[in-house]
Amino acid sequence: MLNKSVLLETSFFIRLLNPSDPLARQAEGYFRYFQQEQYPMLISTVSIAEFCVLGALDQLPLKNLRVLPFNVVHAVRAGEFAAAVFASKGRNLLLNRNIIPNDTKLFAQADSEASIGYYLTSDSESGKVHTLLRQTGQNPRFQFVDLKTPHTEVFGTLGF
Question: What are the residues whose beta carbons fall under 8 Å from the beta carbon of 157, sequence distance 6 or more?
């Protein structure tokens, strides 16, 4: 049986490609684990755009990734997610959150693609958006994975 794929968010690549970042080893651990266990790794065109603000496309490990274009199905689901998030914004769960549109787009992609089982990011704040979507009945179909949690804990491996 083929493993579910994982959508890797922009912050994952920023950590992976900066050896001095405190989460670089965590990112490397996930990347190696996904390669060894043959989890298809995806990067969204949304994340590529975000990465290219300060980085270059040729810095990304594209030979190990599948590029996921943002399409109409994703756009419709992103609108549904954004409506739920914006309607709930008054609950003070999303303090100082001004990047919701890209989080919402990426979540919509992960939710709309049946092959995606995991969404990996180092942006812990986006976890609040994921929780809020669950609380509003949107129920994203993917597991939110925070890079701060070791892959050995998330996937129940020994890490040898």
Answer: 33, 151
Prediction pTM value? 0.89
pLDDT digits (tens, 9 = 90+) for 3-49: 799 999 999 999 999 999 999 999 999 999 999 999 999 999 999 99
Adjacent-strand bridge partners of 43: 67
Q: Which ranges constitute the DSSP H helices of the chain? A: 10-16, 24-36, 45-51, 72-88, 100-112, 124-135, 151-155
- Do the domain assignments include residue 132? yes
Q: What secondary structure letter does DSSP report for 44?
A: E
The answer as to whether 160 is a domain residue is no
Domain with residue 112: its CATH number is: 3.40.50.1010
